[in-house]
Amino acid sequence: MKKRRPIRPGRAQSNRRHVASSLSTAAIAALLAIAFAVVAGCESASDPSEPPAQYSVGGTASNLPEGGIVIALNGIDLTLPQDGPFTFPTLLNDGSAYGVTIVDDGPLAVCLVSNFEGVIDGANVDDVIVGCELRLDPA
């Protein structure tokens, strides 16, 4: 049987630490390289520091009763005092859903909304139609 040479105290441990230290440094360097590559590849086309594009919602109202009506965009009210074009003052981010509803059409009219919901798609919405029919016998 072959005799093994004794290892000098301290030297084997020192070598092991050096190898472990080198592997850790190499592993960290590899992980950093991968992380930078992933981040570079995931950059979006838009600058995250820029606010998202915003658009308005509006349309045309016709045959409104005297005194006007109240409509809402996603729960935010707007009074329409007379027939004609309208635009909600609230701007919505591109890609946001919107919904226009009748809040109060008064006792003398029944009002409906057409093109009342959708998703903002890179442009102002201007095709919401509010139309009212006057009641002969107020309820």
Description:
The protein is of the alpha+beta class. The chain has 2 domains: 1-43; 54-134, Immunoglobulin-like. Helix content is 22%, strand content 37%. It contains 1 helix and 10 strands. The chain has one helix at residues 11-41, and strands at 54-55, 57-62, 69-73, 76-80, 84-87, 92-93, 97-104, 109-114, 117-119, 125-134. The strands form 3 sheets. It has a 4-stranded mixed sheet with strand order 5-2-10-8, with no helix packed on it. Strands 4-3-7-9 form a 4-stranded antiparallel sheet, with no helix packed on it. Strand 3 and strand 4 form a beta hairpin. The longest helix is centred in the N-terminal third of the chain and has 31 residues, at 11-41.
Summarize the topology.
Layout: H1 11-41, E1 54-55, E2 57-62, E3 69-73, E4 76-80, E5 84-87, E6 92-93, E7 97-104, E8 109-114, E9 117-119, E10 125-134
Parallel strand pairs: 2-10
Antiparallel strand pairs: 1-6, 2-5, 3-4, 3-7, 7-9, 8-10
Q: Can you summarize the main beta sheet?
A: 4 strands, mixed
Mean pLDDT over the residues: 81
CATH topology type of the largest domain: Immunoglobulin-like
Structural class: alpha+beta
Class of the largest domain in CATH? Mainly Beta
- Beta fraction: 35-45%
Through-space gap between termini: 112 Å
What is the CATH architecture annotation of the largest domain? Sandwich
| Radius of gyration from CA coordinates | 34 Å
Which regions are unreliable across 5 or more consecutive residues at pLDDT < 50?
Answer: 18-22
> Could you estimate the helical fraction of the residues in percent?
10-25%
Oligomeric assembly:
single chain
Side by side, the strands of the main sheet go 5-2-10-8
Query: What is the tally of beta strands?
Result: 10
User: Helix and strand string, N-terminal first?
Assistant: HEEEEEEEEEE
Number of helices: 1
